[in-house]
Every structure is written in structure tokens, then in C-alpha cells.
Amino acid sequence: MTVTVRFAPSPTGHIHIGNSRPALFNWLFARKNGGAFILRFDDTDLERSKAEYAESIETDLRWLGIQPDRIERQSERVASYDAAAQKLKDAGLLYPCYETPDELERRRSRQRALGRPPVYDRAGLKQSDEERAAFEAEGRKPHWRFVLPNHDGDPFQTRRTDVSWTDLCRGEQAVDLASLSDPVLIRADGTYLYTLPSIVDDIDMGVTHVIRGEDHVANTGVQIAIFEALDAKAPVFGHHNLLTTRDGEGLSKRKGALSIGSLREAGLEPMAVASLAVLTGTSQAVEPVPAMEQLVEKFDLSNVSRSSAKFDPEELKSLNARLVHDLPFEAVRDRLASLGIDPTETFWNTVRGNCETVCAAAAYWQIVDGSIEGKIEDEDREFLSKARDLLPEGDITVESWPAWTNALKAETGRKGRALFMPLRRVLTGLDHGPDMKDMLPLIGRQNILDRLP
């Protein structure tokens, strides 16, 4: 059996770091098992689905390192869903219901007031052809519900019916179908909710494993029942914990919270995002993993915790910085050039330890090859004038800084911060940064002289 998984986003907005978690889980699972990854757009909602969102999702996934083996669009497969719906109708498993949303809500409110669970009472199944015709004459259009197999022949006499499965993340799971309402599969306007198209696609595309968020656990029992009603074997399921912010707030695609695009534009490394999205909420340490191949090796669904996967967005900066500090020159040469930097290995090795992002190197390039406004305190002006006189002759090398500061120390009596900080401030405009011993040769004699008073 070839492992086949899918990630099925709705192209109704930009994906965020929370969405990237199931995408990465599925991708890593496929790669670890020599399988295939399908990117399948749930774009049957034609009003809200946009081509530009689909394009941005593809771009974001590829930036993360996810290369789909296949791309499918549900909007192109409606005929398959129609055929499956007809099969269920012919079997008496899909029935029309004419209640309006307000009527259904009032009915649920009454049930709750009586202390009963707000489960749909299958009133639609009791309606005669004449009653349905009367509703049609009023202009009502039906929505269609699937009859759950939670009875022994009489759908109005339900019994406990546990559907169980071995979950890749959560172990043995069970859902009692008698506790659930018959799910709506087709809206009154004739469009499909996600459930039936997803199941039909999983069957037709040979999906063997469905790995998704824990918010779908309750749906799984229903979906297994529909798989069986369509004479198909359900895939293996895995439900992982959801990525949330530290205060437990969920992430929203529509709000654009921590969107992958915004993280990319902020200069973050894809592996910093992938490392956090995958390792948070597992038994493994959240640490920067430099390459996807290594993340594949670390990935194990059995390590996913049952508790929430909370993270602090500030962790991304820390992970990113640790990755950047270890990036070799060849990995960043072209990116530095795109920032207007004429890169050398010496420059990168000097500044990378102080860069949270690769693009942060541009500020240090300005110090090296541009004009900056140095900081000069009044009490340091005489000291800096003396520094100009004592600047070592000849080429500026890594030995120039200790020779210069030792001469200044002997001449002025200054030491420590009082000695080093005025020089750093006037030459770089910063209070902190790379080792001045290494920066000085990059800045060069002429820039040093131009910046000293």
C-alpha cells in the first residue's frame, strides 16, 4: 500500500502558522513513509473562494518546503459528488429537510430548556410526499441530511452506536452516533458542505491516512459511517493538537494572524516556522531544525501531546536567529546581493551572529559601505579627537582594534566601557553589534576618519 495523504485548505484567505501544522504533518508523514502528498483545494464555495488565495497558499507551502505531488480542485469534481449523493438517496440514506435555520434554532432551544441534547429529531424523515410538495409550493428548498446508522431498522428508535478507530495521535477513540444529529451534506442552495466531497475525494484519490486537527475528532465517527455507506474503507485517522498562542487564543485565517506570507515578508526562515509549527506541543524540544530532511527524521506522530500546543510568537524570532547564526555564506550569498549588499564571506561571518534575520545584515552593510550618523556625547568629543590622532598607520586589520584601544588606554587612562563604547557609537551608530576587532577592517580607514571628529 502506498501511503497517500492530503491537505485540503479552503482558498478563502491566507494560511497562517496554525494551518501550516497539518500541512507539514501530512508532508512529513508522506516523506517518512515514501508516500504521496496531495494539495486539494476545497473551493466548492464559489462566492468566497478566490484564485489569488489558492495561488498564495501554493506559494506559502512551497516556501515552507512542501512540494505537492498532485494538486486537485474540488470545484472540478462536482459530478463525482452528485453521483455519490444520488447513490445515498437511492439507498434511502439521504433525505430532504425543509426547516429554516430559525425553526431549527427554536427547536434546539426548546430541547435545551427541557434538559435534552439538541439532536435533530429526524422530522424530515416523517414528512409525506404531500407535505414536501406543500413546502416546495411555498418556495422552500430542502437541505439534505445523511441518516446515521444508529438504529436497528427504525430510525426513530436510536441506540448507542459506537464507531471506534485507532488514532495515530490519540490512541483508541470512539464516538457514539446516537449522540449526534444527522449531518447536513447538501445545503438548501444545492451546494455541498465539506463532508461529502472530502469523503468522495479520499475514496477516488486513494487517500490512506487523514491527519488533521483535533477539532475534527467528533466528525470522524460520522465520516466513517459515510465511507461505509459508499462501500469504501475509511482511511487511518490521526488528530493532532491545535497550535494556539500562549494565552490559548486560536488562530484565524480570515484575520490573517501570523500568516505565512507576513512571516516570509518579515524575513523569517522557512525552517524556523516549520520547526515551531511541528515541534510545539510534542514531547520533543522546540529547537531550530536546519533542513526539512532532518525534520523528517525527527517527526513522529506518537510524540504529539494530548495537551494544547501553545507557543509564544517571540519564539519564532529566537529560533530564526539561531538558524541565521549558523547559515553558511553560500546559503545567503544571493539573498545578500538582492538586498543591495556586495557580499563577501568575511562580511557575513562577521555580522551573522548579530542578525535575527538575513535581511538585518543590510544595516551592517550600511555601516561598512554607506554613510551613518555616529553618536558623539559631549564628554567624549576630546577623547574621540585623540582617537583620530592615535589611529594606527597602514592597512586596517583585525590587529588594528587592540593596538588602537591599547594606545588610547595608555594615553587617556580610560578603560572598559568608557574606552570602547564611544568608539563603537561614533563608528557604527550603535551601542551593540559585531566584534569591533572584525568590524574595523570592513569599515576601512577612510570611513573611520570621516566619522571621527
UniProtKB/TrEMBL annotation:
Q: Which residues are noted in the entry as ATP-binding?
A: 253
Instruction: Give the main localization category.
Output: cytoplasm
Residue ranges annotated as motif 'HIGH' region = 9-19
Tell me the SUPFAM superfamilies matching this sequence.
An anticodon-binding domain of class I aminoacyl-tRNA synthetases, Nucleotidylyl transferase
Q: What InterPro entries has UniProt attached to this entry?
A: aa-tRNA-synth_I_cd-bd, aa-tRNA-synth_I_codon-bd_sub2, aa-tRNA-synth_I_CS, aa_tRNA-synth_I_cd-bd_sf, Glu-tRNA-ligase_bac/mito, Glu/Gln-tRNA-synth, Glu/Gln-tRNA-synth_Ib_cat-dom, GluQ/Sye
Extract the Pfam families matched here: Anticodon_2 (PF19269), tRNA-synt_1c (PF00749)
For molecular function, the Gene Ontology terms on record are: ATP binding; glutamate-tRNA ligase activity; tRNA binding; zinc ion binding
Motif position, 'KMSKS' region: 250-254
The UniProt entry's GO biological process terms, in alphabetical order, are: glutamyl-tRNA aminoacylation
Catalysed reaction(s) here are: tRNA(Glu) + L-glutamate + ATP = L-glutamyl-tRNA(Glu) + AMP + diphosphate
Key words of the record = Aminoacyl-tRNA synthetase, ATP-binding, Cytoplasm, Ligase, Nucleotide-binding, Protein biosynthesis
Stored PROSITE patterns: AA_TRNA_LIGASE_I (PS00178)
From what superkingdom does this record's organism come?
Answer: Bacteria
Q: How does it assemble?
A: Monomer.
Q: What is this protein called?
A: Glutamate--tRNA ligase
